[in-house]
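To: structure desk
From: M.T.
Subject: fold request, one chain
Message: Could you run this one when you get a chance? Sequence is below, nothing fancy, just the single chain.
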Amino acid sequence: MRKLLSIALFIGVTAIIFSSCGKYEEGPGISLKSKAGRLAGTWEYEKMIVDGTEQDISFYSDITTTLEKDGTGKMTWGSLEMELEWEFDDKKENFRARTKNSTTGEMDEWGDWAKILRLTSDEFWITEEETVGGATVVTETHMKKK
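Reply: Done. Structure tokens follow.
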């Protein structure tokens, strides 16, 4: 009986620990792959939601973003290709990127931080808040591996 109680206690504690391991709101709860490892690959737009309303993303259908583990990558839009750099914040809860200016050859300023909602090997969801005309606009972007 005592052994059975110990096993049940172990399972209960383990379940509590692993259920609270998830860094991102939409998961995953736990992953054996590093965050940079999950982010590495070629991504395409799957869905964009602005202030709760899903948008037509056909404009973005030709855009792919390839991210490397080392914080570099490229964005491709039809025949146009731009080099980019990306980074996580210290807690790896937020993501931002910047592209190389095709005119000057210098890297542009860093974009605003986007909060990561979900980061798996196949899905990358972020949300950004922006003030437009005094109102806050919330954009949620879902990307999937190509």
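Reply (cont.): The mean pLDDT is 86. Let me know if you need anything else for the meeting.
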